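Tip: read the tokens left to right.
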């Protein structure tokens, strides 16, 4: 059975229709992906010394009129508030289609001397454009002493966007410059990463006839653990085993969940979690219990593998932290990604003091083919 993109979003519990045409409810699965992306980008902005702020949703008509060239491109999409209760407003108020006209008048008030530069601000907010209604986004606004500094900032942030799409959403993009006709209204020039301007591209790129296929880094649930009881099976021991597996995965920093529902068959559960796009399924039945193993099933290619329970998480987070507490040097496989390194620092800060990477040794054991990082789902290098 083929499922449409909207059907995938609804069946995967990512969104729901609203009673206003063009408006949608973002359900927890969608918001978890959004927040994972936001957490990554907040760390990038913190390192770049960009401060967070928030400007109001409403824009006065007089402010919009000051930037006619800029607003002209948005004029057909601007939504206006004309009444308060039963009373007409003397002056209509616009709902922001973007925030340049709101923010930059205040830049002129805050920047009084050369040492006030650069001024770099970011905000996470919603905007309203009547063609696409309301949507969430991130927007950064900066001011620099020279054009060269501003151009450099543009390209650095553009590469962060590329990294987010390609490394987190696994969506290939092309960085480039917009034409004069396509550039942002009122801009001198516009750069972009094409094929990745909404969250839906992840769904369109990775979804299949079974439903969603979430990339591991942004998957709200990375691993689903499902018991497979048979008649006369020791359900108590199976329950104990899969709870231990789930706990071990969570302690290792993996977003794992168990499906305890007893009114559906295992096959129904498999289909259900495949539709939701969970990257990895772990099954535990009587045979697995007898062999002290679990069966793993990948969502992307359906490959099954039997893995010893003790080796499912080879290096547990507790062992890692314990070794750090003993002031030991630790040789561990990882993906050499900056955001993963920052996440390890954050997670260890309160326990043993922020861990930091020292170096990648020139001489080290050969990494087995397909070996994953101990800190994430990415391939170790």
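Filled-in amino acids:
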């Amino acid at each position: 059975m083929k499922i449409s993109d909207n059907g995938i979003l609804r069946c995967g519990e990512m969104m729901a229709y609203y009673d206003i045409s063009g408006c949608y409810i973002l359900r927890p699965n969608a918001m978890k992906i959004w927040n994972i992306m936001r957490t990554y980008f907040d760390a990038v902005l913190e390192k770049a010394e960009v401060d967070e702020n928030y400007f109001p949703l409403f824009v006065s008509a007089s402010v919009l009129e000051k930037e006619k060239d800029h607003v002209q491109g948005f004029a057909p999409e601007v939504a206006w508030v004309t009444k308060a209760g039963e009373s007409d407003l003397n002056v209509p108020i616009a709902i922001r289609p973007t925030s340049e006209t709101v923010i930059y008048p205040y830049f002129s008030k805050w920047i009084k001397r050369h040492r006030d530069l650069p001024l770099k601000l970011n905000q996470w907010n919603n905007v309203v454009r009547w063609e696409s209604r309301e949507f969430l986004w991130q927007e950064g606004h900066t001011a620099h002493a020279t054009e060269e500094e501003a151009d450099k900032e543009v390209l650095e942030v553009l590469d962060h966007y590329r990294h987010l799409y390609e490394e987190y959403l696994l969506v290939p993009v092309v960085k480039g410059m917009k034409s004069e006709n396509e550039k942002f209204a009122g801009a001198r020039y516009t750069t972009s990463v094409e094929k990745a301007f909404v969250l839906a591209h992840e769904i369109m790129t990775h979804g299949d006839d079974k439903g969603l296929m979430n990339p591991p880094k942004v998957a709200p649930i990375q691993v689903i653990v499902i018991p497979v009881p048979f008649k006369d099976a020791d359900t108590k021991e199976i329950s104990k085993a899969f709870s231990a597996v789930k706990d071990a995965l969570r302690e290792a920093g993996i977003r794992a969940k168990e499906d305890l529902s007893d009114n559906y068959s295992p096959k129904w559960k498999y289909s259900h979690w495949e539709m939701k796009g969970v990257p990895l399924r772990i099954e535990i039945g009587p045979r697995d219990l007898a062999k002290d193993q679990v069966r793993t099933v990948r969502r992307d290619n359906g490959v099954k593998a039997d893995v010893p329970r003790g080796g499912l998480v080879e290096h547990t987070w507790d062992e890692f932290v314990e070794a750090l507490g003993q002031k030991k040097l630790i040789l561990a496989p990882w993906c050499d990604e900056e955001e993963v390194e920052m996440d390890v620092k954050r997670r260890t800060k309160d326990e043993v003091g922020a861990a930091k990477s020292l170096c990648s040794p020139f001489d080290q054991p050969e990494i087995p083919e397909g070996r994953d990082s101990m800190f994430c789902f990415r391939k170790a290098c």
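Residues 5-206 form a domain with the BirA Bifunctional Protein; domain 2 fold (CATH 3.30.930.10). The first strand starts at residue 15 and ends at 17.
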